[in-house]
Amino acid sequence: MVFLAFFRGWVPSIADTVVLRDGSQISGEVLGLDSEKLTLRDPGGAVRLLLRSQISKVLFEPANPPLKIEVRCAAADDELDLLLNGDAVLERAGPLGTGWVDVSEKARNGNNEFRARVRNERTSWAYRWELRVNGKVTVFSCGQPGIKGKGCTCCGLRGDERGVIDRIDPIWVHVDRSVGKAEILGQ
């Protein structure tokens, strides 16, 4: 059985495997495939042409495993902004929260800082936001939104401050795209 894939242009791959009819295998990056030949860059950088008649099958491997990083505000009293590396990814989320926001492309390889910023105009303040990495949810919350006297008392705060509260400790997430993982540091 011959397995062939048809595509146009560049296939961003790292470890494609070409299985020849004699059973031998050649690894590299498939650069092109047409009705007559396959073009392969081997690990040393050399480009090879193989006739399709020599090929039994081609196994394509993705360049990087998928990585999906999403955030949402579950509840805020009065309003929550969530910043990723200093840039707002959620703004003015209120008591009803938000839907999931995909921040996969905004997260950089290496360490990333998520910082909550709350606006409070009356009584106590609180928040609850969630981070979902490849389907696994982690909750970050402080205080009880909507309940007077049950405000957030983290970070040396009383929970009844007014105005913008931006002294909430950040959450650090280390992203390694080469293996498709993001890890919450210090958890």
Report on the architecture of this protein.
The chain has 2 domains: 1-63, SH3 type barrels (Roll); 69-184, no CATH class. The chain is built from no helices and 15 strands. The protein has strands at residues 16-20, 25-33, 37-41, 47-51, 55-59, 69-77, 79-84, 87-93, 101-102, 110-120, 126-133, 136-142, 163-165, 171-176, 181-184. By secondary structure, it is mostly beta strands. Strands 7, 8, 10, 13, 14 and 15 form a 6-stranded antiparallel sheet that branches. A 5-stranded antiparallel sheet has the order 4-3-2-1-5, with no helix packed on it. It has a 4-stranded antiparallel sheet with strand order 9-6-11-12, with no helix packed on it.
Briefly, what is this?
The chain has 187 residues and is mainly β. It is 0% helix and 49% strand.
What composes the largest sheet?
6 strands, antiparallel
How much helical structure, as a percent, in the residues?
under 10%
Taking the alpha carbons of the first and last residues, their distance comes to 49 Å
Q: List low-pLDDT spans.
A: 1-13
What string gives the helices and strands in order? EEEEEEEEEEEEEEE
- Strand content bin: over 45%
Indicate the mean pLDDT: 88
What count of structural domains? 2
Describe the global form.
Answer: rod-shaped
What is the number of beta strands?
15
Helix count, DSSP H or I runs of 4 or more residues: 0
Category from helices, strands and their pairing: mainly beta
Radius of gyration: 25 Å
